[in-house]
Design a protein that fits this description.
It holds the Pfam family MoCF_biosynth. InterPro entries: MoaB/Mog-like_dom_sf (IPR036425), MoaB/Mog_dom (IPR001453), MoCF_biosynth_CS (IPR008284), MoeA-like (IPR038987), MoeA_C_domain_IV (IPR005111), MoeA_C_domain_IV_sf (IPR036688), MoeA_linker/N (IPR005110), MoeA_linker/N_sf (IPR036135). The chain is α/β, with parallel strands linked by helices and 403 residues long. The chain contains seven helices and 26 strands. It has a six-stranded mixed sheet, with no helix packed on it. Strands 16-13-17-21-20-18 form a six-stranded mixed sheet, sandwiched between helices. A five-stranded mixed beta barrel has the order 22-24-23-25-26. The longest helix has 19 residues. It is elongated.
Length: 403
């Protein structure tokens, strides 16, 4: 069977992937979520004319240079002066305090002298000066945040100031993780030499959470056909939006995931992709659930999760469309061999920059089981199928690893 190009596989995985339904969340649970509906201001900010400085609220007509005004009272934030400023009067005012009725200017503290209840003006007041007008930031009923916006920490402050304790956001996609293999044991449990410590759920789970998903660890399956089929059926019944399996995706005698999924009625629209690492990638649908089968090798699993799982989660979570492959420009700091028919994602390090472009050198070992190499890498050097040999100084494409 011919290998599917990476772009075609990604198109199949993202086909019909639309934002999930909306739900209401309190602001402290909404960071990073995507708004399903706009945030409408419940009040104006400021809600009244307020002072921008410490000083005195006056009538500008009374407050020329040398004018002596009678101190009538005080207006502080949260404690407004309840009376109107009369001719010849001044009201002590502090930053953020409501401007008293009758006043139309602020004389800042530095431009006055005070003796008891008498205030002398040293610089003439100007109407409107040092006053923040009601609604100057935003008005009640206005849209302060549009639908489709991914909420930043700054957005949360704005929504709170708009008197909204909750917002309507796209539901987080639920990702269920299933690992397969008799050899797998959990870290810290005392693995024997013939066993492999399970690592994929941690890297794949972290990428999924960072992309906006709720992640559920659904356990590890043995290399047994009946047990695998039963467990996958239970996982599909668990109402996850995306079921991610790691391992068992190839064609060996103990690779049971593909035949088990097929027996359960999953149409594997993607199986075997022209990429390195990660050729045994699988994808199919079962009702409303999507099934993504990742290779068992930990580097392959991580790279495939980055390339295929993260865009799918982001699409379901309502994030704005992003490039299928978030490529950045680079320049080779060492030569690379010509490539074969598979798109290659080589682990590489960034040695510095020249003219704002990263200088990239592939790491010497590219084995898909070598997690130390993946951890050392700064980026993936992307090599197109059948790319000719690259020389030092040639331009290249990279995907930065910033997690």
């Amino acid at each position: 069977m011919a290998l599917m190009p990476v772009a075609d596989a990604l198109a199949q995985i993202l086909a019909d992937a639309a934002p999930l339904e909306a739900e209401r969340e309190p602001l402290d649970a909404a960071h990073g979520r995507v708004l399903a509906s706009p945030v409408i201001a419940g009040r104006s900010t400021p809600a009244a004319d307020v002072s921008a400085m410490d000083g005195y609220a006056v009538r500008a007509v009374d407050a020329g240079v040398g004018a002596v005004l009678n101190l009538a009272g005080e207006s502080a934030a949260g404690r407004p002066w309840p009376h109107a400023v009369q001719p010849g009067q001044a009201v002590r005012i502090f930053t953020g305090a409501v401007l008293p009725a009758g006043a139309d200017a602020i004389v800042i503290q530095e431009d006055t002298t005070r003796a008891g209840d008498r205030v002398t003006v040293l610089e003439a007041a100007q109407p409107g000066r040092h006053i923040r007008r009601a609604g100057g930031d935003f008005a009640a009923g206005s849209v302060v945040l549009p639908a489709g916006r991914r909420l930043s920490a700054r957005d949360l402050a704005l929504a709170a100031a708009a008197d909204r304790a909750e917002v309507e956001v796209i539901r987080r996609p639920v990702v269920g993780l299933v690992s397969t293999g008799d050899e797998l044991v959990r870290p810290g449990t005392g693995a024997n030499a013939h066993q492999v410590i399970l690592s994929n759920i941690y890297s794949v789970g972290a990428l999924a959470r960072e992309a906006g998903a709720e992640v559920r660890d659904l356990g590890t399956l043995p290399d047994d056909d009946a047990a695998t089929r039963q467990a996958l059926r239970a996982a599909l019944d668990a109402e996850v939006d995306i079921l991610v399996t790691t391992g068992g995706a190839s064609v060996g005698d103990h690779d049971l995931v593909a035949p088990s999924l097929t027996a359960l009625g999953v149409d594997l629209a993607v199986h075997k992709v022209a990429l390195r690492p990660g050729k045994p990638l699988m994808f199919g649908r079962h009702g409303a659930s999507r099934i993504l089968g990742l290779p068992g090798n930990p580097v392959s699993a991580h790279v495939c999760a980055l390339l295929f799982l993260v865009p799918l989660i982001r699409r379901l979570a309502g994030h704005a469309a992003a490039p299928c492959l978030p490529l950045a420009p680079g320049r080779l700091a060492a030569g690379v061999k010509a490539n074969d028919q598979r798109m290659d994602f080589m682990r590489a390090e960034i040695l510095g920059e020249k003219d704002g472009i990263a200088l990239v050198r592939p790491l010497p070992v590219q084995d898909s089981s070598m997690l130390s190499v993946l951890a050392r890498a700064d980026c993936l050097l992307v090599r197109a199928p059948f790319a000719s040999a690259g020389m030092e100084g040639d331009r290249c494409d990279i995907i930065r690893l910033e997690d």
